[in-house]
Amino acid sequence: MKLAKPSVRLMVFIFLWLECLFAITGHCSKMNNLKGKQLRVVTGHFPPVISILRNSSGHIVGYSDQLYNHLLYLSQSLKFTFDIFPSKENTNGVKKNGTWNGIIGTLLRDEADLGLVPVAITLERYEAIEFCGRIGGDSTGILVRYPDPSVSFTSAVEVFSSVIWIGWIISGVVIVAISILIAYVSKRNGVDEQNAIRARTVAWYLFSTLVSQGNYFPSRQLSQRILAATWCLIAFVFVNIYNSTLTSYMSVTYQRPTINSFDDLATNPSYKSTILTGSIQEIDILRSPNENLKKVAERIQKCSDCKKFYLNDMFNAVLEKENYVSIMPSTIGLVALKKYNSERIKCRLAMAYENFSWKPMFLAVPKSSPYIEEINLGSLRFFDSGLRDYWYAIHEKVPKQCQLKYNSKGVASKRSSNRIKLEQFYLPFVILFVGYFLAFVQFCREHIRRLSLSRRVKIEETFSSGNI
């Protein structure tokens, strides 16, 4: 193969060098669009992500929280200044009759260059604005009233699961059946027992050993005694485990909010749900194909007091009105817990067990913005610096006061130092009274039977004396 001439190779090298130079120059010019510029930044009041600080007369005195620190970082690293102002409507944006309001409306009217709010992506929003500078993510939760602690009246049997209780009863029935079978086969083979083995005799023996009372076992046959000894050994282990665990179960209180999931909310029509106007929560619920969420969305649409523009209105609805909950981002719910809960006064708010629909969040810019790539790069550097992780480590923690630690069933348990309450003995007392009733019924049966037998004997004696 012939090599290209030196002049041709030189021309190819110059061409490639110029192409790289133009690409680098274009990229650099693109990456320096923000330098020396003054950005118009529109924002809203959505603590703890972004807060507008006002004095007693309502005038704005400053801004704070994570997104404002994010903006300060971008401003210093990308060398631009900014003029920040609040949106006329405290919402990301709602589209009515083809027109957007809120943050998105401000961007579309070219009144701002950057929307400093957490915005989740939807198709309708994507058709209006561009998303850049990922700032994290959040899920949807339900803010509810703090549930009152309660005790379980079935705590005496909750030491073991229902499967263990059923298995134990079946084991007793099986042992009775095996004992009767052994007695039957032994009798057929000519083995003589001093006392007849009956099902009720064996069952009574098993019960007496289970309650640690003991009883005489009527059989002298070795196979029967081995069977009884096996039951006694297992009953010893079972009873000791039960006794050692019962005290801890009797000293536990349980807490479960009435509305602990969206299924609960759908099946309780007496409850109303507040929601932030224009939020991703409103969009998700109103457009969800899930039947339960459709029911919730239908009630929100019919409710005249359920759509809110301010978070404090959502908090106050739960605190001050009966049968109200608020659907909001989980991080905002944590802010409510920190603000309104105190062990020294009273626990007032809690987050329900269920969270759903985690969404990534971004800043918002107009579609034609030349600053998208720079904001993306600056936001990635903000992440890498560890500043965001540091902020979230402080603000995303569930506050220790009034914390509900849910189990897999959505129930929070808490050990109580108080005395055991009467409610915890409801089930044992019910069993006691049922036992009294059954004993009385059996006594009546025996008495009636005894009277009928005595009358029959007298009649027979009368007939016998008459015949004589």
TrEMBL record:
Residues 1-23 form the signal peptide. GO terms for molecular function: ligand-gated monoatomic ion channel activity. It is a multi-pass membrane protein. It is found in: Cell membrane. GO terms for biological process: detection of stimulus involved in sensory perception. GO terms for cellular component: plasma membrane. InterPro entries: Glu/Gly-bd, Insect_Ionotropic_Sensory_Rcpt, Iontro_rcpt_C. The chain crosses the membrane at residues 163-185, 222-242, 425-443. Keywords: Cell membrane, Glycoprotein, Ion channel, Ion transport, Ligand-gated ion channel, Membrane, Receptor, Signal, Transmembrane, Transmembrane helix, Transport. It holds the Pfam family Lig_chan-Glu_bd. Residues 38-394 form the Ionotropic glutamate receptor C-terminal domain. Belongs to the glutamate-gated ion channel (TC 1.A.10.1) family. This is Ionotropic glutamate receptor C-terminal domain-containing protein. It comes from Daphnia galeata.
